[in-house]
UniProtKB/TrEMBL annotation:
InterPro entries associated with the record: RlaP
Record protein name field: Nucleotidyltransferase
Length: 216
């Protein structure tokens, strides 16, 4: 049953990961994330549509639109970065509207989630045997969060930081330097705030209602 939702009801599909960040190498996969809107009558049944679907393409993962909106309102970094991906492969009118209202999902909570996700990654790193790719993405997440806190949108493309980030990935930066960079970024994120106190839930809910009506 899940095979029917993607691509049949896909409203938005973007590329994320290293190719969206501008940090890809020759071996990088194409990571795709999407949003689908299940037909509204399916929610009237005892068995509801799935909240997410894997595939059908390799490295493809999609959320049902209501689940996606809920996670975005919680300032999930992965979800928010989908809305700012520079590589949009597929969109419908509903998908275009979702992108148009993306700032409605933002709130100061994002400062906590971006630093919190980065801290969780940091705690899983072993200073004696660092996984340098994970260390690079931990720093990248903090750079994105800092841009969000200062300018009101996450930074996805990392051209300005590409050389330094790839040096981390290659293990050419010492652990001490990585840890110092991390501390500096965390302090800067905590000290900035261009974000509203709360997201615009009314705007998001109105979008969701319109999408459900259109899918009747």
């Amino acid at each position: 049953m899940q095979d029917e939702f993607v691509p049949n009801y896909l409203i938005l599909s973007v590329v994320v990961g290293s190719r969206a960040y501008g940090l890809e190498t020759e071996d990088s996969d194409v990571d795709r994330r999407g949003v689908f809107a299940a037909p509204t009558p399916l929610f009237w049944r005892l068995v509801k549509p799935p909240t997410h679907v894997d595939g059908p393409l390799p490295e493809q993962f999609s959320w049902e639109v209501e689940r996606f909106c809920g996670l975005a309102l919680e300032a999930n970094p992965t979800i928010l970065e989908c809305l700012w991906s520079p590589i949009v492969e597929h969109t419908t009118p509903a998908g275009a509207e979702l992108l148009a209202i993306r700032r409605a999902f933002l709130s100061r909570r994002a400062q906590q989630t971006f630093t919190g996700y980065a801290d969780a990654q940091f705690r899983r790193l072993d200073p004696e045997r660092p996984r340098w790719k994970q260390a690079m993405h931990m720093i990248r997440l903090l750079l994105s969060g800092l841009h969000l806190a200062r300018h009101g949108e996450p930074l996805v493309r990392m051209e300005a930081h590409r050389d330094r980030l790839l040096a981390v990935r290659r293990g050419e930066t010492t652990w001490t330097e990585v840890e110092r960079w991390r501390r500096e970024l965390v302090a800067l994120v905590d000290g900035a705030s261009a974000l509203p106190a709360e997201p615009d839930r009314r705007c998001v809910e109105e979008f969701l209602v319109r999408t459900r009506k259109a899918a009747l």
